[in-house]
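User: I'm putting together a teaching handout on how multi-component assemblies are represented. Below are the sequence lines for each component of a complex, exactly as they appear in our records. Could you produce the 3D structure of the whole assembly as structure tokens, so the students can see both representations side by side? Please keep the chain order the same as the input.
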Amino acid sequence: MSAISRDEVAHLARLARLAVTEDELDRFAGQLDSILQHVARIGEVAADDIPPTSHSVPLVNVMRADVPEPSLAREDVLAGAPDSAEDRFRVPRILDEE
Amino acid sequence: MTDVTNLTAAELAGVIASGEASAAEVAEAFLGRIEAEDGAINAFLHVDAEGARAAARAVDEARAAGRELGPLAGVPVAVKDIMTTKGVPTTAASKMLEGWKPPYDATVVERLKAAGTVMLGKTNMDEFAMGSSTEYSAYGPTRNPWDLSRIPGGSSGGSSAAVASRMAPLSLGTDTGGSIRQPGAVTGTVGAKPTYGGTSRYGLIAFSSSLDTPGPFARNVLDAALLHEVIAGHDRRDSTSIPQPVPPVVAAARQGATGDLTGMRVGVVREFDEAEGAEPGVIAAYKQAVETLGKLGAEVVELSCPHFPYALPAYYLIAPSECSSNLARFDGVRYGVRTGDDGHNSLEEVMALTREAGFGPEVKRRIILGTYALSAGYVDEYYGKAQKVKTLITRDFTAAFEQVDVLVSPTTPFTAFEIGSRTEDPVQMYLADLYTIPSNLYGGPAISVPCGLSDGLPVGLQIMAPTMRDDLMYRVGAAFETTQTPLVPQR
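Assistant: Of course. Below is the structure of the complete assembly, with chains in the same order as your input.
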């Protein structure tokens, strides 16, 4: 039985904001299925009482002095944006017209 | 004077400091070498000739003014294109960032500049560092200088190929699951992954933040240590940076060069010996290397790390999960390209079209896989379980390092494979990182040092050390190197 269906891949792609093609769906479904079958091996490990590790460096609440410093210049930041206007990032329409 | 591209980084620094050659002459020699060779190899995505010349001139002026020069002043370095470089194009080998010029330098790049090194340009890689062959670059694969039909490893394949083919004496890569060590192994170069948190992630385009580690490539162990020491050390702009002094890696490399490993205990991992799929030629070169370490005075101890076989599956849950989150920033708003903004499509549609056009297949696969592993109903079974396996692997290392000083293994199960032979079978590609991933999950340092050839292609010996004991792997690596003939590709 496959671990992941084509429909599931399509759903995940939507969640991840990827407009994948039909052709990609066909390829990815099979490939992701074989990857998932491989990684499912971690199910064999008995780890019920084991605490998880997120970072290997056990640092918590790293603080620094709250001293204001100059930020990047606005025009330098906007220079790399695909579109900008009036010193801001310009984005496509987010609200439907009334 | 002889062709300076044959010199080591330490030698180059010496001839520049003595005035035998100027930094400008050295820079020209390497720029010339890139001009002659890179058409065939494709190691560079961007050559910054103008920037290199200016940096070299500054070193020559400093020397003329009698100012003291650092240990790598005037030495050229190639930089992986995942590191931001102020005003110099940075794409992470993705179409998503085509033409982007960052407004700031990564910490490691800032430190390269402060040390007076000369940045030659940005090197090719697997897109966003996801891959083991550099074939997933959106700008064409890099070719291995040992055999142009083969891969140079990945994801830092441009950096390994540039050093192997003498287009640069040094380069920087990043290692998340083996992306410095595996390309080092298959190109016959030295590649080191420092302790996680020992080198700053600030200004790296993030792939898997709990694992990403920048580190050096060189043609010998001392050179790698010299570059390591320049880029390492605490950085307050990286919250996972370790606030401790840099391990004495250069001194350790010099100590190792005496070729004496008396009193050093070297562990071989039983579970790695039982792993399937390694090429016989790789195993033969590795066994020979272990024997050599014994002859140098080290005591070889066989031990067990029972959870190592689960490192690869755990990694392929943790890394894609973190990448699916990290790469959410590429939405066609703040940097890079935007697709489908025709005045009719909604913001959400434009994002999806931008990401569809901007990302290549491996990046999409990993984003989807990570989204799956983090989704409700699966997060405990997959991401949560993988984090527990990370704890168990750390415990394996901790127990092993009570018995031995370092662990050794082959760096990668196979030598450089043919371009195109594994791209459609992700699991086969992932196996390249079988031996390298445990150190990433544990966070400890590891280095790959050339240990001979198999069918005419380089093989690497991996040396793994405890967290913040990077010096130990340099000592063992440098000692081992004294027994080896330098590997020189035809190109």
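A couple of points students might notice: Residues 22-39 of chain A form the longest helix (18 residues). Chain A has a mean pLDDT of 90.
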